[in-house]
Every structure is written in structure tokens, then in C-alpha cells.
Specification:
The chain is an all-alpha fold. The protein is built from 13 helices and no strands.
Amino acid sequence: MIKKSTLQHLRIPFSIFLMPFFCFAASQSSQPNMFYLFISFVIIHIFFNPASNGFNSYYDKDEESIGGLENPPPVDQELLYVSLFVDLVGHLLCFIINWQFALMLFIIGLMSKAYSHPAIRLKKYPIIGLLTVVFFQGAWTYLMSMLAINGFSFGELITEKTLFAAGLCSLLLLGSYPMTQVYQHGEDGRRGDHTISRMLGIKGTFYWTISVFSLGTAGFILYFFYYYSLTIALIFPVFMTPTLVYFLLWFLRVLKDEKAADYKSTMNLNKISSVSFILLFTFLYFYSH
């Protein structure tokens, strides 16, 4: 019987925050294979992401709040074994689609483990850690999702539109990922993880996100104008309005008191942002099909 603490550290509900780029890939697929779409969704969000969460939790051994767990329970060896088993099952299921999908998931799995394993721990290096997450959770995840949903080969991924969209995913993460670290400065410091958010400082992290996310918004507007229409391009900021309003109100509180950069506020921003993107890309899917 798997322990409750192990299931908690897999953080399966937290996968909702990682769904937007998959949904974006689905919305950009002109003739998606619905069976592949379902299978790849399960593999990525029910197997791979929870396995990565558990592996990360095992080596971080957090005592304070982490993404999806306000009060994380202590970890033990079972968490590592379960995470690796779930990871293996997810990788084997990839072959239902094709070996290219399996290879892409295997590579991102290696990078995820390198991010948190003490022998390498890319997480402790602010720039390398940031670039690893930005590329693999952004562009790589989008391309991997496109390949899986459509049953593509590698060669079929290399198009102007697909690479443009993949780059935009990484640009968004470049702006948003430091915000996920803003409440963890104390614990990251005790572990010796010099994250990008610690390097920028709390207020600096907010300024960074404002600047880079603005570039990402401009990029998405250009993308939708070029491949869809001016109307669709202008719909993008409409869907992003709840995220922008919450972020700015939160930032005003942080300017008065940096303690306002806390776990609950960060999770609320993640929820609002993720739901906004999922609704946008769901709208685009039905608009395009």
C-alpha cells in the first residue's frame, strides 16, 4: 500500500499548472489524432510530471511550502522508488505512439533528474537552472506534445509556425518561472540553491516578470495576428486580463511589504494564469476545428 505522504509528493493536481503548453499544442494541431491526444495527455500529466515532482521532492526534502503542497510531509525511500516506477511506466507507454515521443520524454526526464539530483543539481545554478527549465518545460514540451498529439516524426516538427510557437512558450517561462521561486528564498538559501529569484531579489523578480512577460505577450499577439487574424490577436490580452490584474495588485502589496510574496499568493497567480491560458487555447482549438 502506497503511503499517503508519497501520493501527496507526486502532486498530481499540480499538473494543471503544466497543462497550458500541451493545450497550446493541441490547439495548433490541424488534424490531431484524438487517441494519441488522450494517451499523450495521460503520459505527460498523470505519469511523467508526478514522477518528476516526486523525484524532486525526494532530493529537496523540503520542510516549507512547495508548489502544490503548503505543508509537505517528510519524505522517505518509498517516494523515490514509486517516482522511478511511475516514470518507467510513462516511458513505456510512449511507444504506443512512436519511438520519437519516447526519446523526447526520456531526454526531458534526464534533464529533470539532473535539475534536482545532488550529483549534478542544476537547480543551484541560477542561470543554468533557469535556462534548463525554460527550454525543456517550454519549447521542448511544446514540440514533444505536438509530435505526440499528431504522431509526427522529428522532421515534421521543423516548420516555421511550430518553432515560432515553441519559442514563445520558452519566452513565457523565462518571465514566469522566477515567480515560482519567490517565496522559497529562505529554504533555497539554507540548501545552497542560488536560484534566479534569489539572485534578482523579491522586488527584482517582479520587475523581471513584468519585463519578460510583456515581451512574451507581444510575441503571442504577433503570432496570432500572423497565423490567425487581428481579432484573435486582440483576444489574447483579453484572456490574460485576470492574470495581469491579480499580478499588479499583488505587486503593490509586495512593494509595501516583501512578506506578501508568500506561498498562497504565488499559487493563486499560478492558478489564475494556468486557467486563463487553458481557456484561451481551448477556445482556439474549437475556433480552428
